Fold this sequence. Notes:
Elements: E1 27-29, E2 37-40, E3 44-47, E4 55-56, E5 75-80, E6 88-92, E7 97-100, E8 108-109, E9 119-125, E10 133-138, E11 148-152, E12 160-161, E13 171-176, E14 184-188, E15 191-195, E16 203-204, E17 214-220, E18 225-230, E19 235-239, H1 248-251, E20 255-260, E21 263-264, E22 283-290, E23 294-301, E24 307-315, E25 318-325, E26 327-328, H2 333-343, E27 359-360, E28 364-371, E29 377-385
Parallel strand pairs: 21-29
Antiparallel strand pairs: 1-2, 2-3, 3-4, 5-6, 6-7, 7-8, 9-10, 10-11, 11-12, 13-14, 14-15, 15-16, 17-18, 18-19, 20-22, 22-25, 23-24, 23-28, 26-27, 28-29
Amino acid sequence: NPDDAQFIHPKNDIGEPNLRFNWQTPIWLSVHNQDILYVGTNRFHRSMRKGEDLKVLSSDLTAADRKGDVPFNTITAIHESPLRFGLIYAGTDDGRVWISKDAGYTWSRIDTGLPQGVYISRIVASAHMEGRVYVSLNGCRSDHFTPYIYTSDDYGATWKCLSNALPAEPVNVVREDPEKENILFAGTDNGVYLSLDRGTSWMTMSGGLPRVAVHDMVIHPRDGELVVATHGRSIYIASLRELRLLDDSLRATALKVLHHDDLTFSKRWGKKNYEFADAPQPKSAIVYFAKSSGVVTFRLLSAGGKELLTVVDSAAAGLNYKTIILSVDAGAVPTLQQEFRKANGNKSFLLAKSEDGNYYVPAGTYTLELISADGKKVRQEMVVKDPEASK
């Protein structure tokens, strides 16, 4: 209800210096109690009542040494530990990092060992270890482009650099996977990077994502998806389902199918019902892992082991995504018809050609076979469901 809306704005007391607000003022809702709101100006504020009665709980956390047309010496990052209520971190645009272990009443400075005077772009308290925290810094405002990501396992007493393997791009955001502690994501001025070993090595996540500045990322806790926000005000979403399977055991495997879509048979396959729409086709999205790059051959086999379809893909080392259309090669149609007749007591069975000229697989159980260039094979059952069977 618009009539119930309230303007939330921290205010200084009469006689005190005006508060300084960053262009992107950091706010944080406590995951432990959604009524609790944290806000950063140049001081730390907290409300226990959904933004009402914002209290000032800190002194000025910045160096307070600059003036200009744009507010400087402001808090840029706030994060509360998901493992412990009241364990809060704050960072500023002049490179200061602070910790409070009592919900904001007292603060200790913990940026010794970090680059000094560099804009704190993000702080992330770990979901896996109470004392662990990640910090990213962005030096572009000081005309240098070294990537900075650091981590600490002792509440910021000591720091370790995680960004040595990243290219020279300012880092805007760092994220930790809440389910897999070794998976990290970095958003820079040139895209998204993924680490599977907590920052020892990094790789690009560029499939479908242009080379753009990434300013924020969040991992959806229910859907297991990485949501990426760019400087161009666009949103990109990537599933983490397969990434979370990339452990040492899988990466030592030559070839493996991680996921494929089973389908439900439809009589509409191949039929063009609308003039300006393509005829629907049975498409199965397949995700597979290949240890080495090279040609991978897909074969769809009948229940009797007969080859119905062959598709060739050029695989990269790592995760690969391929969508295949479950059509039957014309030469395999007689064999498939004979198999279905035998399976149904020699009843007549005709696999008819669709309006688009293709033969599509009937309901049944098939085998998906992948063959690497060096002859390694993996097989997985693929089901085309009968829509009448569930009625």
